[in-house]
Amino acid sequence: MASRDRTARVAVLGTSVQRSRNERRPSRGRTANVRRVVLLGLVLLALVLLTVSFRSPTSGALHDAQGYGASALRPFQVAAERVARPFRDAYDYVSGLTGAKAENKKLHREVRQLRAQYVANLAAASQLAEFKALLHFEELKTFPKSFRPVNTTVISFPGTFAQQVTIAAGSSSGLRINTPVVTADGLIGRVTNVTPRTAQVTLLSDPQSSVPAVDITHHVSGLIRRGPRGTFDLDRVAKEAIVKKGDVIVTRGTVDRKLPDYYPYGIPIGTVLSASPSDIATFLTVQVTPYARFDQLDAVAALVPKK
Amino acid sequence: MSGVDGLKAAALLFVAAIFQVSIFSQARVLGGEPQILLVTLVAVALLRGSMFGAIGGFFGGLVVDTATLSKLGLTSLVLTLAGYWIGRYGETTGRDRAHAPFLSVGVTTVLYAFGVLIVRFVLGEPAPAGPMVRGLVPSIVLNLILTAPVYWLVRRLLRPLDHGDYATEVQLLG
């Protein structure tokens, strides 16, 4: 054991350190023990938090505490988001300019197609009321009559693993678990956790997400899911069904009152990119391009039932 | 080391955590994501040791999990271990070496990614390994770009300790 007043050479650095007689330091063993106890305590605490979080993810005392914490952090998140907004806007502006010419050509083509579709829709709409009366059609929840939008912003974004965002509106604005969330382009997901001032939205791009959807052109139903290569697929479509490239996919809505769907009928999801049968697959392989840009989420609206 | 250092480190990690969830999570380049919280934690742990690293990691992870309404403790668990390990490296062989922050950030980025992946997998949460592996190299590059300015800033706020402050951890010779 080295005495306190001798010159100590530090092994790693090879420098000499003269310790004063009065200097008091904890022993090496004691410091190491404290360090290990702190590490062990923190790891155990993290495991306890994880366990409680998993046992009651959307309720309970810990969830309430997390809700208060999230509400307290919300102003900081909003402030950070505002600080970043000019930079993000500048980036979007520059990247938008580079693709503007190609997009202009594409939009012109779409306008021509939509004009033709509009004329066809006008003709169909004039017959709709008559057909409804003939069929004694009972109208279920439809968008937007039965819902009011709660407009808000995204305050945190998905990480590498979790396809979830946090929005700056919560149960105090009427949001509940499974409330659908949309952008101006289309559906993005549903609320999976809610606190008074914030809510967590699980995106359609989450591997566990599935949305009943319908091809409104050919009236083919299926489930929108994230495909194995990160694409969106309209799953569970029979091989004999007709689905064409460019068909519009919307939410199917409630079909049976006993089994209400989270999503109202008619929220745009995307267009069919390709549809092809496979010899080994049971169903048709339908790839869908979503309308919503999941990498550029900013302003969103949660659809809250009016009743 | 003092309480003032602790407050400074807590403020740094809090700001880094808020910036991480509000800004940096969205800044994806080639599938990679810059992790300013991890880089800040590495800088704090290198300059102040394993205790600061572990406690700072736990605190930073708790802020992230609270802000994103994720499972509490998930990020804390991985960051606590990362902070402790980098702190030990800083207390021993990494001390005063110019490449230590860059080496630590590079290694921690890989370990953190696999750590989160493993914890999520064990807990039965979605843990897609493919996107994570594809985005790993861009993430390392982005984090290394962040390292120099973040380490410089943290070093200005938390002055490096004297060698004597580490001496209780070192075997004396002669």
> What is the tally of beta strands of chain A?
14
pLDDT under 50 segments of chain A (min length 5)? 1-17
Main sheet: strands, sense, barrel of chain A: 6 strands, antiparallel, barrel
Overall structural class of chain B, as computed from helix and strand content, comes to mainly alpha
Percent helix of chain B: over 70%
pLDDT below 50 for ≥5 consecutive residues: which ranges of chain B? none
Radius of gyration of CA atoms of chain B, rounded to a whole number: 16 Å
Major sheet of chain B: none
Most extensive interface between two protein chains, with residue counts: A-B, 65 and 60 residues
Total DSSP helices of chain B: 7
SSE topology string of chain B: HHHHHHHE
Helix percent of chain A reads 25-40%
Termini gap of chain A: 79 Å
Radius of gyration of chain A: 28 Å
User: Strand portion of chain A, in percent?
Assistant: 25-35%
Instruction: Quote the average pLDDT of chain A.
Output: 80
Distance between the termini of chain B: 29 Å
Global shape of chain A: globular
Strand content of chain B: under 5%
What would you say about this model in short?
Chain A has 307 residues and is an alpha+beta fold. Chain A has 3 helices and 14 strands. Chain A has a 6-stranded antiparallel barrel with strand order 3-4-7-6-5-14. In chain A, strands 8-9-10-13-12-11 form a 6-stranded antiparallel β-barrel.
Describe the structure.
The complex is a heterodimer of chains A (307) and B (174). Chain A has helices spanning 28-55, 61-98, 100-135, and strands at 7-10, 16-18, 147-156, 164-167, 180-182, 187-194, 199-203, 210-215, 220-226, 232-235, 248-251, 268-276, 285-290, 299-305. Chain A is of the alpha+beta class and 307 residues long. In chain A, the strands form three sheets. Chain A has a six-stranded antiparallel beta barrel. A six-stranded antiparallel beta barrel of chain A has the order 8-9-10-13-12-11. In chain A, strand 8 and strand 9 (220-226) form a beta hairpin. The longest helix of chain A has 38 residues, at 61-98. Mean pLDDT of chain A is 80; it is low at 1-17. Chain B is mostly helical. In chain B, 71% of the residues lie in helices and 1% in strands. Chain B has helices spanning 3-24, 36-48, 50-67, 74-91, 100-123, 129-134, 136-157, and one strand spanning 172-173. The longest helix of chain B is centred in the middle third of the chain and has 24 residues, at 100-123. The interface between A and B is large, with 65 and 60 residues.
